[in-house]
Design goal:
mainly alpha; 78% helix; globular
Length: 249
Amino acid sequence: MSNRLVNWFKFASPQTFYPLAGKLIPWFWALTAAFGLAGLYIGFFVAPTDAQQGEGYRIIFIHVPASWMSMFIYLVMAFWAALGLGFNTRLSGMMASALAPTGALMAFLSLWTGALWGKPMWGTWWVWDARLTSELILFFLYLGFIALQSAIDDPRRADKAGAVLALVGVVNIPIIYFSVKWWNTLHQGASVSLTKSPSMAQTMLWGMLLMALAFWMYSIAVSLTRVRAIILERERHAGWVEELGEIRS
């Protein structure tokens, strides 16, 4: 058991993680394409028309996975930030930095598709609904994290400052998730729950889950690609990076 842990811990070094990420990226891109094509086909061509919302409901196959990922990525980003803050590991801060832009993209997609969905359903593009407002705050937290790190020249200091902001912002995640239950809002409740049977047709559920997997695989692929770029930038003076450059040339 201890030998296995040692084998895994060796990937905490940017030098050993860099080639591993390079090997994994093509697989995650392939899974993104496979799950995405299957999810879009089921969601737009197989799933039945909703009795109340008509064809407009199909935006959920983008909106819901993006919303899930915006929250999940923030939790993962905060985890890496806390790990870096607690153990002063270089790779942890790099991973947090790599995740933030993708998380911001997912939050933006959640807000934009939510507006497109809300206009025909509620008659307006935006309401100061508890879930919408807390999701907007999440988007600003991502932007604040990125801006704060960009404003500090020293990467290690930037990682620590970003980690503090990320950990403070974690309190917003349960607010987003439970806002529909805690307050009387326009936003509909969850259609998928771990404790209850889904309140939608099986084909709708499968389409949504496949799209969620596609968004998940995409987030991993993009974040691994970005963290490799961050590793090269921060470790550019290290001997192994210079050797890598010689091999590539």
